[in-house]
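Notes from the 1:1 (GR / supervisor)

We went over the backlog. Supervisor wanted to see one worked example end to end before approving the batch request, so GR pasted a single chain during the call. The sequence is below; no edits were made to it. Supervisor asked that the structure be written out right there so they could see what the output format looks like.
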Amino acid sequence: MPIHIKHSATIFTLMSVLFFQGAGKDVVASNDVDSFQLVVTAVGSTTDTSVQAALLKGMLLGLEGRRSVRAPEGWSALSNTLACSTSAPVRQHALALSQIFGDTMAVASALECVQDSSMAAAQRCSTLSLLLGQQNQEASQLLKVLIDEPALTLSAIRGYAVVRNDEAPAVLISRYSKLNTQEQRAVVETLASRKAYAEALLEALKMNQIQSSSIPVQVARSLKDLLGKKFTNVYGALPVVGAEREHLIKKYKKLCKPSAVAAADASRGRAVFQKTCAACHVLYEEGGKVGPELTGANRANLDYILLNSVYPSLDVPHAYRTVSVLTVDGRVVNGVLAEEDDTKIVLRTPEQPRVVIAKEDIDFRKISPQSMMPDGQLDAMKPQEVIDLVKYLRTTEQVELP
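Structure output shown during the call:
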């Protein structure tokens, strides 16, 4: 029976989101391809491109993290029609779905898009991400070229973590010194994602190609798990702040005496926050969501600030505990669980708000009582930076950057 579209685009947008993210999740997660038929029929029964885009986007969300999905009946003909749509989102969503459904022409078109420098960088990055998510080896082989394009450098670096590539360590380490700070951190995190990569990172540390100070503590924890004493023999012992936390709290409490904080600069403190904290924490509607939001926290209390800064793993809410995942092909991912359904989990990391891992790819996962926030964060700051940060954290409204 044909489906006649009578609702407005607004209603259909809401329906598509509800279907794929809520009530329809069990249907989408099943192996019954017929469950997609209603959506395919609905898309083909309307000429409203905003409705089509919403439904196709919902379908992509429902298939996120899945591979080798059989196309619903009629998709081939519909996708040919959608390829000529006047709406760019409709064309892009349809092409992405065809890739997931194993359409070789769609995959070839996606590979061309990734290599086409005339295409928008955002589109090339999203297409690359989808190809790598489908474990496309051809896309992985393109990374050594794409990494030299500034608009795609970060995506290419992170792409080496998604698909194992024996060239990755040499490519990443050879370019490391020429990259900016964010890109260098992405290199370190990528090299810490697989044991074979980590071995190369260890050699780079020995050769002074990468500095030990460039490895965040939480990444060092992962490397210690992968390499054991071989890593700590080169990097040094990981800080054990818990045993001396009372001493450290007293030290920083003395540093942040009322007169020092009163004379501090909250604007400079905001700059310190952006550099060290904003990747994981939201304050005044800005920042990442890896750790708890700080806007409503007990920030006026200096003891509260110092205890959570010096010993972040003392009392970690369950929702913010570190989840460590080892995939069947040896990839290691550490983050906070953002979503989970029958087919995938989604982790949030300090560098990436969404890392999607198919459950069929998970070999092992564990929940750690440790926080993603590294111990000793204040130790890496200059005394005045600590005081300015405390001044900023105790503000009651946002301040301008210096």
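Supervisor's comment: The beta strands are 321-327, 332-340, 344-348, 355-358, 362-371.
Batch request approved.
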